Amino acid sequence: VQLVESGGGLVQPGGSLRLSCAASGSTFSRYPMSWYRKVPGKERELVAYITSGGGGTVFSDSVKGRFTISRDNAKNTVHLQMNSLKSEDTAVYYCEAYAASGQAYWGRGTQVTVSS
């Protein structure tokens, strides 16, 4: 599985961004998907998770109520809608696909910068 993130950029505090992750292959619908973020010098943080069918989601406390995750299995994509962005949301955001075998697949990430 190859994953490609897009949609990052520079946004002012309080603004919104929508990240997308496009996956290759025909097995996308089998994988739970997650969004992580990484800031230099800090641990990687799980931001949001969605089940393979899209019926279940989990969010970190730091983004709960501001971010939503969705997926379109017909288009092999997963999205992260980020609203009410704060400076502390600045990070590189990665999507991850987790296979039942235990194999995890990662994209290269997309930079999100929240600054005035």
- N- to C-terminal distance: 37 Å
Most strands sheet: 7 strands, mixed
Give the beta-strand count. Answer: 11
> How are helices and strands ordered from N to C?
EEEEEEEEEEE
Total of DSSP H or I helical runs spanning 4+ residues = 0
As a percent range, the share of strand residues is over 45%
Oligomer category = single chain
| Low confidence ranges | none
Gyration radius over CA: 13 Å
Helix content: under 10%
User: Class by helix and strand content?
Assistant: mainly beta
Gist?
With 116 residues, the chain is an all-beta fold. The protein is 0% helix and 49% strand. The mean pLDDT is 96.
Model description:
The protein is built from no helices and eleven strands. With 116 residues, it is mainly β. β4 (33-38) and β5 form a beta hairpin. It is globular.
Task: Give the key terms.
116 residues; single chain; mainly beta
Topology of this structure?
Blueprint: E1 3-6, E2 9-11, E3 17-23, E4 33-38, E5 45-50, E6 57-59, E7 67-72, E8 77-82, E9 91-98, E10 104-106, E11 110-114
Parallel strand pairs: 2-11
Antiparallel strand pairs: 1-3, 3-8, 4-5, 4-9, 5-6, 7-8, 9-10, 9-11
